[in-house]
Amino acid sequence: MPGPVFLNGDRIALRPIEEADLEFLQAQVNDPTIWRSIGRSRPLNGEQERDFFDNVICGDDTVDLLIGVDSTPIGTIGLFEFDWEARTAEIGYWIAPDHHDRGYGTEATECVVEYAFDQLGLHRIAAHVFEFNDPSQRLLETVGFTKEGVHRDADFVDGEYQDVYWYGLLEDEWRRQRRDGGD
């Protein structure tokens, strides 16, 4: 996987997203499994992917990382919507369909949560997921997130309104879970 590794897990490596990754990112975000789960209902062309890279990924307002396994890119994970005064952010991720159900998303999320609390000094991390995305709900709950609420009919995906489930994880809950879990 080109570029320096920023965070390491047991089986995954997280590194900054580079210009060379744009083709992979565009191909994946146009896969129905991905665009549906992230709520993007329109296709993304190369120029739009480049704009996202230039204006969001290369900006200072997010932390965007590529998830890799054995030098192969398999997804992304990031922190955004930072509120530095309240010490909060939101986490988001996706894994390429060929790599689902292997625990890579959980491992990447655990790495980024640890980074967010230990290095960035965050107090709370939020996440949202569509009602139909059971695997993402399980991932968040496995990492220790608590389902906090539902925004009813908050998004329109596949011709239907979908509820959006909101999750949260507080730093002290995460530390207690790690301590009690023996991690």
TrEMBL record:
Domain N-acetyltransferase: start-end pairs: 12-171
Keyword Disulfide bond in record: no
A Pfam entry, by short name: Acetyltransf_3
Single Gene Ontology MF annotation: protein-N-terminal-alanine acetyltransferase activity
Source species, domain of life: Archaea
Keywords, ordered alphabetically: Transferase
Stored InterPro entries: Acyl_CoA_acyltransferase, GNAT_dom, Ribosomal_N-acetyltransferase
Gene Ontology cellular component list: cytoplasm
PROSITE patterns given in the database record: GNAT
Protein's UniProt keywords contain Transferase: yes
Protein name in the entry: GNAT family N-acetyltransferase
Species the sequence originates in: Natrinema pallidum
